[in-house]
Amino acid sequence: MLPSPQLLAGRYVALEPLNASRHSAALWGAVQGHDGVWTYLADGPYASEADLEGALEQKQGGTAAVFLAIVPTAGGKGPDPYGAQGYASYMRMDPTNGVIEVGNILLAPALQRTTAATEAMYLMARHIFEDLGYRRYEWKCNAKNEPSRRAALRYGFTFEGIFRQHMIVKGQNRDTAWFSMLDSEWPARKAAFEAWLDPANFDADGRQRLALRCRP
């Protein structure tokens, strides 16, 4: 099945179908003045909230990808008053072969390296493998994007190599690093995610006791 825009709710984050009118103001507030978050994305940065809202409308109405807004919750106590702090999408969807990619990931500085960001990736992977029955889940990024490459490995994806001169993005060559996770690997990855996300893994100040280890 193709994914459809729907709510994926966790303890620390909610993934909502991206809605320009609902999410643009919070997203603009979260990324304004932080143009570096757009460096490795195909679009942005934007000069105004209206420009960003227009881009979100195109993403919302497109058929090539399904975009979800990333909305942290207050430690499981309700919606974060700051609203959406990023988004991600399911893209390059190939249901015939059971292959799909997570990509177009935008994380505002306040969302980066947080429990909410990790849980968002867990929820998206769980939905693909358990609800929709995909065989292969892909992660691709600019080979120069070291934070994205580290994140892929942390989340349990396997590095498969570099596709040289794969794309031209914003007028620049992009060599692409490819990663994947298979359905046969998901049960172990899921267990690692859930152990890390358990509230008992965090002290009173929210610091992790044990690091996330999704790979043997």
Secondary structure layout:
Elements: E1 8-9, E2 13-17, H1 20-31, H2 49-61, E3 65-72, E4 86-94, E5 99-107, H3 115-131, E6 136-142, H4 146-154, E7 158-169, E8 172-182, H5 186-197
Parallel strand pairs: 5-6
Antiparallel strand pairs: 1-2, 2-3, 3-4, 4-5, 6-8, 7-8
Written description of the protein model:
With 216 residues, this protein is of the alpha+beta class. The protein has a single domain (8-201), classed as 3-Layer(aba) Sandwich (Aminopeptidase), CATH 3.40.630. The chain is 29% helix and 29% strand. The protein has five helices and eight strands. The chain has helices spanning 20-31, 49-61, 115-131, 146-154, 186-197; strands spanning 8-9, 13-17, 65-72, 86-94, 99-107, 136-142, 158-169, 172-182. Strands 1-2-3-4-5-6-8-7 form an eight-stranded mixed beta sheet. Helix 1 packs across helix 2 and helix 3 runs antiparallel to helix 5. The protein is globular and about 45 Å long. The mean pLDDT is 94.
